[in-house]
Amino acid sequence: MKNLRLIAIFLFAFALFSCNKKETSPQNKTETEKSMLNERLEAFSPVTITTDISWLTDNQKKVVELLSKAGKIADELFWRQNTYDGIALRDSLAKIDAPEANELLRYIKIWYGPYDAMFGEKRFVGNGPDVRPAQGNLYPQDLTKEEFEEYIKNNPDEKKDLESQYTVVVRDGDKLKTIPYHEAYPEMLQMADLLDEAAKYADNPTLKNYLTLRAKAFRTDEYYESDMAWMDIKDNDIDVVIGPIENYTDAMFNYKTAFEGVVMIKDKEASKLLDMYKDNIDYFEHHLPYDKKYIRKSAGGGNILQVVNVYYFGGDCNGGTKTIAASLPNDPRVHATKGGKKSMYKNIMEAKFDKIVMPIAKAVMAEDLIPYCSKNSFTSFVTLHEVSHTLGRGYVYGKKDLAVRKAFKERFSAIEELKADILGMYNHKHLLEKGLIDEEEMKRTIATYIPGLYRSIRFGAEEAHGKANVIQLNFLMEKGAIILDDNGKLTYNPDIFMDKVAELAGMVLTMQAEGNYEAGGELLEKYGQVSDITKKIIESLSNIPRDLDNQ
Ligand code: ZN
User: Fold this and answer.
1) How distant, in Å, are the alpha carbons of 102, 214, 466 from that of 40?
2) Interval 403-439: pLDDT, tens
3) Which of 26, 236, 290, 346 would be 204's cystine partner, CB 3.0–4.6 Å?
């Protein structure tokens, strides 16, 4: 019986893979279906994301090993949060001994579930909704946005718990009820024990303190203290991001946080080179291209920039497209007092540049710009993207209790990524004016930025980063800042390029400062659709991997 059920799931998967090719004759069907799965698998270049730790002390190695174990639990918890049936499908496929099932298993592991964000969040295996439910597995599957908002209106006392970043929402008869993460996910207690154990081996006092407080947070869902302590880890060889962190998985409201684990080994040499950005953060803040009244005194003291190589990488950051840098923590209260910490994942960035950005540049860029596409410019742009997340207002102007994140609800992620990207480009203008980079470096930056837009659009236009890049490309093309040359290749107009970048940056910063949810919607609507030219260019990139498959 069990085998029959497994085979049924398996066949259903292939039926879905074939649904776009209805005209295929029955005898050719298997061939076509297989090639569709292969094609999607080929979009992910296999790599193993890890790094050499042989130079660490024995105690440090022990810490890394224990944190990686805790990361593995975070990885499994993310599976549970992302979709309601991902784990069941994965485990069923693992039991089938057939090459096709193995491939499907590899693909479901890439996405942590049966939905593929590069193809409109469409289901590719198993029986269930055709498109990924926006609520993930964090709210009841039949809950609508309208019902949730209406419920909160009628039950204002429950608003705080229902909108909490650290509760799962379930039905309780006619009512909604919340379960705190540490009860909904009891494995968090094991994670806490592993962190306590790691703390015993941590020689660095700031890391030891953080691990102890983080373990406590996993038992109580109170993260503030540990987030503050995380900001104190500055010059240690080992750092870690672990727990429920980012809000993208909750595509309905961006309220609930998703689990991930990143064990990082500091690249001290490369981190030193980044101090230049750190020294300029307040200068960037004071020269943002919008109304002076919105400009803050400081971007938040104590911002830390670090370049790391990733040893363990699992959960949310590893689902589909791999994160290459993170700006954390997300709590604006921590930002206000201690700033943020940006970690650039150097080994992941470099793998992406080699396997994706450079091949895209060769395919789409004007001949004379290809030699300007550079690995260092890619790293530098990503770094300034991360710096830019701390620029502009975290709270709406004149409303000191309304976080921009809250004001923009489900539109926040795309708008925030857009801000970080366009300011990442814009801030190069200041570096140039201050003589910290030269015109050649500026050209390299732009020649790397443009193929980078296509890299991100290929994540899928529904995904926050993908959407943010579609908007930049459409806007800059409409304004004539990015243009096609006579050979149909991409180039830019140096006379207006940076002005148009400033114009878009100003628009986004202003809508955030005003908490203008409607303006955000209009921008997403007007510039967020993939144009025919872009579609054609994207199609021409079909042989270039879209991302990495961390195996
Ligand atoms: Zn970002």
Assistant:
1) 14, 38, 18
2) 999 999 999 999 999 999 999 999 999 999 999 999 9
3) 236
